[in-house]
Amino acid sequence: MRWILGTALLASAVFANPALAQDCAITVEGNDQMQFVQKELRVSTSCESITVTLKHVGKLAANVMGHNWVLTATGDFEAVAKDGQTAGTANDFVPPNDARVLAATKVIGGGEETTISFDPSALEPGGDYTFFCSFPPHSVLMNGKLIVE
Ligand code: CU
């Protein structure tokens, strides 16, 4: 019976809402080597909402090897990373009330995970977007492209 239930659940997830199944929920992992496991993520603007789950698959604490997930236009990436450094731990290294920040999670440590949802209407299909960790100085290594379809 178990495989029948599993197959039915999978089928309903894929066919009931193809956009949801493919592009509306993404997972990204950060590790103790100061890296995102995924270098490229893909979302669709047809989603009502995009859910991002950040998992820290390492063991190091948030004050040593903290990770967050911040999304900006690629042209804003380096400036926002710099301003995030100034914003400091109290703001999870994200400049507060900053329109350049399209989405951002809090900072987490090893073994933790966090989820955010955001409205994709601010994203342009085919636009150039970069996601990164703003925990200093991780953005140098921890960055990747968000492909918007
Ligand atoms: Cu990090």
Shape, per Cα inertia axes: globular
Shape-level CATH architecture: Sandwich
Which runs of at least 5 residues are low in confidence (pLDDT < 50)?
4-21
Strand percentage, roughly?
25-35%
Report helical residue fraction. 10-25%
Specify Rg, calculated over alpha carbons.
Answer: 16 Å
Q: What is the terminal-to-terminal distance? A: 38 Å
Query: Which cofactor or ligand species appear?
Result: copper (II) ion
Number of strands: 8
The CATH H-level superfamily is: Cupredoxins -  blue copper proteins
CATH class: Mainly Beta
Outline the structure in words.
The protein has a single domain, classed as Cupredoxins -  blue copper proteins (Immunoglobulin-like, Sandwich). It has helices at 2-16, 18-24, 62-65, 77-87; strands at residues 25-30, 40-43, 50-56, 70-73, 103-104, 113-118, 129-132, 143-148. Helix 1 crosses helix 2 (18-24). The protein is 25% helix and 26% strand. The longest helix has 15 residues, at 2-16. The protein has 149 residues and is an alpha/beta fold. The strands form 2 sheets. The chain has a 5-stranded mixed sheet. A 3-stranded mixed sheet has the order 1-3-6. It is built from 4 helices and 8 strands, in the order H-H-E-E-E-H-E-H-E-E-E-E. Bound molecules: copper (II) ion. Copper (II) ion (CU) binds at residues 30, 66-67, 133, 135, 138, 142.
